[in-house]
């Protein structure tokens, strides 16, 4: 956060780490940081100050800082962005955005939260989609009705999250998932993306339960 102040940007911890902190999950090896401004510049400074190694992806405005020693071992940094989809299951077209726009592009409300890191706002929760309330109520909810059509891999992620955290699907979310699955949306994914999501299911504590839930969803 202090380094973000030095470079004149606003930085936020985002996504899964915020969700896990609110759930009381302890140790995190990875941290996702989103920056309103040039994220790669902050990553470069962080790598130098923390004696880490940086890998930048200039074309998409992201960077990874790998650290040694105890605590967080990897920090993924990205500039805030918004996304549009030319067609279902396509890779999105990205453009610069605000932290709110960056959160609105995410999969579920429980992953659409950010914590400010700059010293003057440290710990401020940015939660435009009410993810903290959904987490408290144990509800899994998408951000908009076309979410599963834009990115069908979210169906598989939803099954993982629901099982891992003991969540119930919001009724409209469940309907949207069944509708997308019924239209064959999972078949729109390329083989690489589908394989990655299925591999992640096998890494869950109870992969059989996830696969059973997937079968029930596809079967209607």
Number of separate helices: 10
Task: Please state the overall shape, judged from the principal axes of the Cα atoms.
Answer: globular
Mean pLDDT: 92
Going across the biggest sheet, name each strand in turn: 3-4-5-2-1-8-9
**SS-based class:** alpha+beta
Helix content: 40-55%
Question: Low-confidence runs (pLDDT<50, min 5 residues)?
Answer: none
Order of helices and strands: HEHEHEEEEEHEEHEHHEHHH
In terms of DSSP E residues, the strand content is: 15-25%
For the record, give the distance between the C-alpha atoms at the N and C termini, rounded to a whole number. 47 Å
Estimated radius of gyration:
18 Å
| Secondary structure: number of strands | 11
Largest sheet: 7 strands, mixed
Describe this structure in words.
- By secondary structure, this protein is of the alpha+beta class.
- Helix content is 41%, strand content 20%.
- The chain has ten helices and eleven strands.
- The chain has helices spanning 2-7, 16-23, 39-49, 99-104, 131-137, 147-150, 153-165, 171-182, 191-202, 207-218; strands spanning 10-14, 30-36, 53-57, 62-66, 74-79, 81-84, 93-96, 114-116, 125-126, 139-140, 168-169.
- The strands form three sheets. The protein has a seven-stranded mixed beta sheet. It has a two-stranded antiparallel ribbon with strand order 6-7.
- Strand 6 (81-84) and strand 7 form a beta hairpin.
- Helix 7 crosses helix 10 (207-218).
- The mean pLDDT is 92.
